[in-house]
Amino acid sequence: MFENQRLDRQMKPASGQPGRPTNWRTTLLAVTVLTAAGFALAGGAAAGEIKDPPRWKSGNDFSSLKDWNLKGENIVPHGVNPLYYPIMPGHKHALERSDHPDGKYRKETVVLDTTEDFDIPGIGKFKTAVVQEEERVDGVLTQRAINWLALDKTTNSVYSFGGLSWEIKEGKPIFAGTWRAGDPDGDGVTEPGMLMPGNFTIGDRYIAAGSKSLAFGGSENMEAGIEIRVPAGTFKGCARIREQDLIKPNEITDKVWCPDVGVVSDSSDGKLVISNALPASNPASNVSTVGKASDKPLKQKSPVAKISAAEATKIALERMPGKATDVKIERKLGKNVYVVEIQTSRGEKDVFIDIESGKIVGTE
């Protein structure tokens, strides 16, 4: 995420593509009209192919939190943006990609009937929706992520406030990482990202993930009013958005979003095959094939920190004097730890602090 969020470097080592170390997805559009970007008729680009040249940008080229006037009292966990999938409890959809290098790839998204609380200085208190994503290759569950999404009811824009991710190995979930708006991030604070503006304007650019050390990316509105055919049907009045990793600018993704159903084509996750946002007369509205566990709370426990990031930083600096430049939660040495990055006179060092006990469990 961005939302699947998207997707991020620590949360999803293989965002959309198991085994591929990137957090942005890259590939295919199948438009049925000739667009200004030069897409082919009724078939689109092959997987991985981006027809129009990328427009490399820096973070300064995108609107961000300072431009959005987010206020806690205006942020709601559930709602509908015309071009986004319904962020309503019980919504389900799935995309598939048969030409994935690891096998038949499927990504299932479910809006769970739970919320996540936030209290961010400068924004205030609010709740977000909890959106689960599960990735399967040849029917085997390989990754699971939880994303925290919400809408600004004054603009109807959709925002991401972070998430958690697990890799599934031998049927067991292994915590892979997290990022969360409001947490320390280098010399600053992690910011939310915009996933879909309430008013779609071609050429607009906006930060889509706001952790400059973990998940930093931007989106650009590329096209509107296009038509696309995917397994779930033919859709009109759609928009194309390009996502770019601002840490590794060569990593880009194109997505097509359509009214009422949201994403129908994702350049790494494939194309929409089912969605319960479709009319009941459409066979693709039957989402019974979505994993039975997907509409229930996760069985595995999310890592719960009993000490704060600030407390972990203080403990680390007592052990290793210097300047703390970043702190994040990762899985190290078989434990969930704060990784406190410290700039010392001898170079950069990491101190690992157990998130439950506050004990130092290692350095690097």
Automatic annotation (TrEMBL):
Residues 1-23 are annotated as: Disordered. InterPro entries: PepSY (IPR025711). Residues 306-364 form the PepSY domain. Pfam families: PepSY. Residues 1-11 have a biased composition (Basic and acidic residues). It comes from the Bacteria. This is PepSY domain-containing protein. It comes from Bradyrhizobium retamae.
